Amino acid sequence: MANDKLIVTPRRGLAAIVGLATASLLLVNIPKEESGRTVKVEMAPDGAATVQHISGRQYLRAYLDIVGVPTACDGLTSYHGRKIKIADQFTEAQCTAMLEEELVVHAKGVMQCTPGLALTYPRRDHARFAAVSLAYNVGVANWCSSTARRMFNASRITAGCDALLPWNKVTKNGKKVVSNGLAGRRSRERAICLKDAA
């Protein structure tokens, strides 16, 4: 339902891992990238987030993504280690809670292998956002072996932001092909990331 407010509780929440600004960026941008929907997020000082659906389709029933993987909510292909099945259905509240939990899992992985994005570094909110957004899309293991991660750990923020761009391909019929959707997403992540390089 549009305009319903959902509270995301801080239970060692996202803001504790990546900071308030990065958590807000993730909770606003991931639904836009994954589902095309618009949400409004208000962050409390304790890290609790109030998420309000404004517009756009919500995928409460599972669907097949561009490469045929069952997906639900805001890009979830699994939850608590269980793959999403095409028959799965969720409520809006479940989707919001699941998104926050999955972002926490991905953020922890990113922060563990990327000490160059530690909260003690100033002006890293946008780079942290880009790193977690990419990891949410391609997996933590891929992030941790990426050139972007190596650049961020070396405090080469611009180079790290630029290294996001090659992650624009999907596998179709056994071949890697550029996805216009992923190319656009990587460009948007890079643009946000570069705000820390200025």
Short structural summary:
With 198 residues, this protein is of the alpha+beta class. Helices cover 45% and strands 17% of the residues. Strands 1-3-2 form a three-stranded antiparallel beta sheet, with helices on one face.
Description:
The chain crosses the membrane at residues 12-30. Belongs to the glycosyl hydrolase 24 family. It comes from Sphingobium yanoikuyae (Sphingomonas yanoikuyae). Keywords: Antimicrobial, Bacteriolytic enzyme, Glycosidase, Hydrolase, Membrane, Transmembrane, Transmembrane helix. This protein has 198 residues and is α+β, with helices and mostly antiparallel strands. It has a single domain (5-196), classed as Lysozyme (Orthogonal Bundle), CATH 1.10.530. Helices cover 45% and strands 17% of the residues. The protein has helices spanning 14-18, 20-35, 92-113, 125-138, 140-144, 147-153, 157-162, 180-193; strands at 5-8, 38-43, 49-55, 63-64, 70-71, 78-79, 82-83, 169-172, 175-178. The chain has a 3-stranded antiparallel sheet, with helices on one face. A two-stranded antiparallel ribbon has the order 4-5. 36% of the residues are buried. The mean pLDDT is 91.
